[in-house]
Design goal:
Rossmann fold; 6-stranded parallel sheet; 35% helix
Length: 199
């Protein structure tokens, strides 16, 4: 069976000296990471890329985990297909997300950036700001808006090499009554302070 490898990363941000801010345990799990992981898990269960393709998903919150860039590149190359998703990226996290994107694009991997910074800039500004244009120039795909009901087509586009530079769903909000449950693997959820129930 073929494998389509997805690596989701919730980027952290830099401190005043340029170091990535990380904690041994962060405060709460990332809801953005959980939402995207849940949507993609639903796609994997539905075999949206065909019955002969196993969608394998890893998720990491950089706020409490050191990202193994070289290891991630090896995993996706070994699978032969897949992408890196930088999810829930806030404005203060965008410089770090862009630096991660550069590393993965340098290795020839598909990269997608979504989250508040991308969606907010596309929604409010007449043109893409320079920092987001840099990502487009690197060949990074932008995802603006909600992913409900859109992930299957999106995955097929990436697998087929036909991904668009920008997926803009800001004017087409999904019906949230049937939204997918946000989930994360226990190893991610337990890297936060306090006791958190896991599924």
């Amino acid at each position: 069976m073929a494998v389509f490898k997805i690596v989701l990363i919730k980027p952290s941000h830099y401190d005043a000296r340029g170091y990535v801010i990380q904690w041994w345990r962060s405060t709460i799990p990332s809801n953005s990471l959980a939402s995207v992981y849940g949507l993609l898990t639903e796609c994997a269960d539905a075999q949206v890329l065909g019955p002969d393709v196993d969608i394998d998903i890893d998720a990491y919150d950089e706020c409490n985990t050191i990202i193994d860039i070289k290891g991630t590149i090896r995993k996706i190359r070994a699978a032969g297909a897949g992408f890196v998703g930088l999810v829930g990226v806030q404005s203060n996290q965008y410089p770090r997300a862009l630096d991660l994107a550069r590393e993965f694009r340098k290795a020839g991997l598909p990269v997608v950036i979504g989250g508040f910074h991308v969606s907010g800039c596309i929604s409010m500004l007449p043109r893409l700001p320079d920092d987001i244009q840099q990502a487009v120039d690197l060949g990074v795909t932008l995802f603006a808006g909600e992913g409900e009901g859109r992930m299957a087509e999106f995955l097929r586009d990436i697998k087929n090499g036909t991904a668009k530079p920008k997926y803009n769903y800001l004017a087409d909000m999904p019906e949230m009554a049937a939204a997918t449950l946000p989930i994360l693997p226990a190893r991610i959820v337990t890297r936060v302070n306090g006791k958190v129930a896991t599924m």
